[in-house]
Design goal:
This protein is α+β, with helices and mostly antiparallel strands. The protein is built from 14 helices and 53 strands. Helix 10 links the parallel strand 9 and strand 10. The chain is globular, with a radius of gyration of 31 Å.
Length: 900
């Protein structure tokens, strides 16, 4: 499977399309990684090394709903050090004794909860709230002065029992639980809540001087939170709400108000990572998870306590949010979340502005889109969806692993294969012709319920047979069974992948976060598979490392030979690499690595390149880079790196890219800046130059995307022939280069009145207007030149507008999402036009040069195609001039061709 085929497969899996360039013949350049997507509802730009915002949250787990499994899951996924508060309950089921003490069932339920909470430590601070499961004695619930005093006395009695019988500090109490919803049962009113708080503070020493916090009404509906808080805020130390109803605007406004009042922002029943993300942005500092799901929540708690938030975005009316965090150890993760009961389907697009990265192993790319599912109304189709995405880069990145494929799964310690046999999951020696040695690997459906960051492994011999953790156990060393019952995979049949390096993965359980592990290192058949904590010994750790092998490929660990003869040729906006091809029969391609010179900041910029040459067009003009190449085989074994080659894209004034649109989206210059489209390109015989033109229509998939670095220069010229076919909609784009709605430069044929060029770099938008010069159904040549002293618009070779007041350079923006026919703004229409002979120069053409381009005259300007250039001069690291390019032999469909 070649790189482009991998990109297509991933696009189908993750809801992002890549066709167009992908449908052209293979071209070995960075352009194969372009991944055009339909407009997203929200764009989240982030800079890996950018300044972040640090929070100091307190995260905890809940035992108001008694569940030992919930506690164990939370501790495993969050890691115990990040569980620093808990929630327990006082019980209203029985009256107090004559001397004001708790008794009977009240004590039983306290002890039951405490035994579970001790899993997180005997000194875990706790917040007590009303036990809705137990019911209420009539001495408490009637709304009277006496019963209000009884309620306060009952709370104090529970606190006294805790102080006398446990080491758990009581950090706070919530007098009523969801009082806006349970008011009939508990007799709760805003006034009664206030009075209970007042009595506790005035009459009971445990609450004097704010030793124990009084928590405002923990409303189910965040729309009601402010009313309950305002009704007694003089007595409340913490404000509290959670989100099972209400608007995001009111959820945010509530925590904003608490911050202004100097009160602690608290959510005692978080149901989704969205509540945590949004709350932190607006002043919430304490959050307790109700029913703990798994990975996304756990990793968010870890990274938010030990890292910085470097990007955030939300869709308020859809009740969804997303963020990107950088851990103090350098890891970067993106999160998406939604309201449990109110979310609507939302698309998010993450954009890495500094460097190309891998999103859950997909890449290298700057952009990544995903859809988080929602419903159609309150509790109609919502799935409480959330997800975490690993953002990675470097010299050793996760393999180009493709879900919805069939694999054998090999164990590093034993070399044996994962097998479903006789009701158990065990290891056997390789024999992949048998279907019970093979696994169909699938991403879970985003609507599976809750977190959907997981895979399932189904036996090719029995589609429902899956690895299943015995009894959902969180205990270290639990057996893994082969189970076949439910059509929808159970939580303990879902797994996530954590890259272990050198082509291996750790496989972790959704239910427990424990690692799939061989019970020992014995290489004979039948070794049991268990779930265990991560091993610390290097040899034992290999028991927990796995490779996914395509069917027909035998697991082995012999690496290919190190590539030799790496050469680098610098162009004005690219570097062409070539090397001596290897001759191993199982060679699967080459990994291309790049770093800025004098650094060790290596990144894998291409994976499994077929052949022995590659053009890097994601490099920056004028920056010196070092390159090296590794060979990789079909079993994911990687060679040592080649000798280093060095090159500097010259930035020489000239043509960076030219697209003739003659039945393909190729850039005909040596920079190979090939374009890509989400839809299959349509070409028309109605053209201005060459033989064809590209047809664009007002459709979210019919636009042309150009490579990431195509417009990253101090000066710039964009020219193209356009035949505008529908002028009924304003704000169409001839081009729009940027990466969000605050960073762009565009040309629209009409904003309703004028043709406009606009440029913005986070501050004010600068514009040039002129009466629209494009006639419908007529070919017109359009150019925009952005120079040091002047920016100008040309139509048919004549200047129609200009300005000397634009001081933003294209390189200031560093545009990454470079569109012809599409806007950075999702609400703007797509262009309906024919496009022909588009060109980009890395300097501002003069008026005469613009006219020459229109007339396709090359005299006086840089060569239009690079075809007239002399044979390239190539230098290796030894400084010896090389006069010939080495020819590579492709490996086709993963199989070696005979090499001469």
């Amino acid at each position: 499977m070649n790189i482009r085929h991998i990109a297509i497969s991933l696009s189908l899996v993750w809801g992002c399309s890549l066709t167009g360039a992908a449908q052209e013949a293979e071209r070995s350049s960075s352009s194969i990684n372009l991944s055009p997507n339909s407009p997203s509802d929200v764009i989240i730009p982030f800079a890996i090394n950018g300044e972040g915002k640090r929070f100091t949250p307190t995260w905890g787990l809940d035992q108001a709903w008694i569940s030992e499994q919930n506690m164990r899951k939370g501790l495993r996924h969050m890691e115990p050090e990040n569980v620093t508060i808990g929630r327990s309950c006082f019980s209203m089921k029985a009256p107090l004794t004559d001397d004001g003490k708790v008794q009977g069932d009240q004590i039983t339920r306290l002890r039951q909860r405490n035994s579970i909470l001790r899993l997180a430590g005997t000194n875990l601070p706790l917040v007590l709230t009303a036990d809705q499961e137990a019911g209420s004695d009539e001495s408490y619930v009637k709304n009277s002065v006496a019963n209000t005093e009884n309620w306060a006395r009952m709370i104090n009695a529970h606190v006294e029992w805790m102080q006398e019988n446990t080491q758990f500090p009581v950090a706070g109490v919530s007098p009523f639980n969801e009082p806006d919803y349970w008011s009939v049962e508990e007799g709760a009113t805003i006034e009664r809540h206030r009075d209970v708080a007042r009595i506790l503070k005035e009459q009971y020493p445990a609450f004097a001087d704010n030793k124990i916090a009084i928590v405002g009404g923990n409303t189910l509906n965040d729309d009601k939170a402010l009313n309950w808080y305002n009704g007694g805020k003089q007595y409340y130390d913490w404000g509290n709400t959670h989100q099972l109803a209400g608007s995001m605007a009111n959820y945010k406004a509530y925590y904003d108000q608490l911050a202004r009042d100097g009160k602690v922002g608290y959510n005692d029943e978080m149901h989704n990572v969205a509540e945590a993300m949004i709350g932190l942005e607006h002043g919430m500092t304490v959050g307790i998870w109700w029913g703990f799901d798994s990975r996304a929540r756990g990793e968010f708690c870890q990274i938010s306590r030990h890292g910085e938030r470097i990007a955030y975005g939300e869709h308020a009316s859809n009740w969804t949010a997303a963020s990107v965090y950088r851990h103090d150890d350098g890891r970067v993760k993106a999160f998406v979340g939604s309201s449990e009961r109110q979310a609507y389907t939302t698309t998010y697009q993450f954009v890495s502005t500094e460097r190309e990265v891998y999103y859950d192993g997909h890449g290298p790319m700057h952009e990544y889109c995903m859809e988080i599912p929602g419903g159609t109304g309150y509790q109609k189709g919502q799935t409480n969806a959330e997800r975490v995405i690993d953002v990675t880069w470097g010299e050793d990145v996760a393999p180009s692993f493709v879900a919805d494929g069939r694999y054998t799964i090999a164990n590093c310690a034993t070399g044996n294969i994962l097998v479903a046999k006789d009701g158990n999951i065990v290891l056997y020696k390789a024999a992949d012709a048998n279907k019970y040695y093979q696994w169909d690997v699938h991403l879970v459906d985003p609507r599976i319920g809750g977190d959907y960051s997981f895979y399932t492994f189904e036996s090719a011999d029995n589609k429902k047979l899956r690895p299943n953790v015995l009894n959902n156990s969180t205990i270290d060393g639990t057996n893994v069974l082969a189970y076949a019952e439910a059509d929808v995979p159970l939580g303990n049949e879902q797994w996530y992948l954590e890259y272990a390096g050198n082509g291996y993965y750790f496989i972790r359980s959704r239910e427990t976060a424990l690692y799939l592990s061989s019970a020992n290192s014995v290489k004979s058949n039948g070794t049991n598979i268990v779930t265990k904590v991560r091993e610390t010994d290097a040899n034992r750790l290999k028991r927990q490392m796995w490779r996914f092998m395509p069917i027909g490929i035998t697991y082995e660990t012999v690496a290919p030979a190190t590539p030799t003869g790496l050469l680098a040729e610098a162009g004005n906006a690219s570097v062409r690499l070539s090397w001596t091809p290897g001759n191993e029969e199982d060679l699967d391609g080459y990994m291309i690595l790049r770093a800025p010179k004098d650094t060790e900041q290596w990144n894998t910029i291409a994976r499994k390149v077929k052949g022995s040459s590659y053009t890097d067009n994601t490099c920056r003009q004028g920056v010196t880079y070092i390159y090296k190449v590794k060979a990789i085989d079909l079993a994911e074994n990687m060679s040592e790196a080649s000798a280093i080659a060095e090159a500097t894209p010259t930035g020489e004034r000239g043509l960076v890219g030219q697209w003739e649109m003659d039945d393909n989206l190729y850039d005909i210059t040596s920079n190979m800046m090939d374009g890509a489209m989400q839809a299959t390109p349509t070409y028309t015989a109605t053209h201005q130059s060459g033989t064809k033109a590209l047809s664009l229509s007002n459709n979210k998939k019919t636009y042309l995307q150009l490579p990431y670095e195509i417009a990253n220069s101090d000066e710039l010229t964009i020219t193209l022939w356009v035949n505008w076919r529908d002028n009924s909609s304003s704000w169409q784009r001839l081009f729009d280069f940027g990466y969000d709605t605050d960073h762009y430069m565009f040309l629209t044929p009409s904003n309703g009145k004028n043709m406009r060029f606009a440029i913005k770099n986070g501050g004010n938008e600068l514009t040039i207007d002129c009466p629209s010069k494009l006639d419908v159904l007529k070919w017109r040549h359009v150019a925009v030149t952005i120079g040091k002293d002047k920016t100008a618009i040309y139509v048919n070779g004549e200047e129609v507008a200009s300005s000397t007041g634009i001081d933003i350079k294209p390189s200031d923006i560093r545009p990454l999402l470079n569109y012809i026919g599409r806007s950075q703004f999702s609400s703007d229409p797509f262009l309906t036009a024919y496009i022909d002979d588009a060109r980009i120069y890395n300097y501002a053409l003069t008026a005469d040069e613009v006219k020459n381009v229109m007339e396709n005259v090359n005299s006086g300007i840089a060569p239009a195609t690079g075809k007239e250039k002399a044979a390239p001069v190539i230098y290796g690291m030894d400084g010896i001039r090389r006069n010939e390019m080495r020819k590579g032999i492709n490996i086709v469909n993963g199989k070696k061709q005979v090499r001469n």
